[in-house]
Amino acid sequence: MLSKDFDAVVFDMDGVIFDSERATMYCWLDLAEKYDIPNIKEPYYACIGTTMVRTREIMLETYGPDFPYDEYAKEASVMYHEKYDGGRLPMKKGIRELLVFLKENNKKIALASSSRRQTVVNQLRDANILEYFDAVICGDMVERSKPAPDIFLKACSEIGVEPQRAYGIEDSFNGIRALSAAGMHAIMVPDLLAATDEMKELSERVLGDLLEVREYLR
Asked: 185-188 and 135-138: which strand pairing?
């Protein structure tokens, strides 16, 4: 018996479904050591939840217009795919249990990820969870990236659910801001960054993992 009255849950992917933000950060830390890039964590954290375009802008704003971001990003991508492709990307605790719970209770499930669609679909398919999602909306399918609400509004539209009737699960500050702007029920499950006072104010709940999310929605 569900105590919460809602029609759908919209998931972010990186840092919520997969432990990919940490995996990507490790690749950038290796690059920073190799090329003597100072203080890489701070701009990396600022990029969490944004699109590839905005990530590039942040890095150039941080290190200057001559920073060879495209070269470094390509090398980081090669490192990442060599390590984690083919279903080797670690999944977050409780994701399968939560997806099964939502399906058993006839809730719509959507994904709203700032990553490119092909990457998203490949990772979901490799993890054998793609079939749980009624819609997959990605960063290259909307004009504005998080914290703008566009991607969440499009996800709700695709599954035919009013934003006010949907929960959104995010780990990033920009993601929570986007959920709030979309008028959705925001649940934050922090990953690399702990919830700030702003995040606690914008979120309906801050929970430790996806098993706690399942219990909260139950």
From this structure: unpaired
The tokens describing 144, both together, are 């504005």
Residues 6+ away with beta carbon under 8 Å from 16: 92, 169, 170, 171, 189, 191, 210
Both 114 and 145 in one domain: the answer is yes
Measured between alpha carbons, how far is 21 from 6 in angstroms, rounded to an integer?
29
- Does residue 154 lie within any of the structural domains? yes
75-80 mean pLDDT: 95
Q: Please state whether the peptide bond connecting residue 149 to the residue before it is cis, i.e. omega within 30 degrees of 0.
A: no
Cβ contact 145:50 at 8 Å? yes
Average pLDDT for 130-139:
97
Specify whether 53 is located in the same domain as 143: no
* Cβ neighbours for 60, distance < 8 A, ≥ 6 positions apart: 67, 69
Structure tokens at 182: 């979309």
Interatomic CA distance for residues 58 and 47, integer angstroms:
7
CA distance 57 to 88: 30
Asked whether the whole model's pTM tops 0.90, one would answer yes
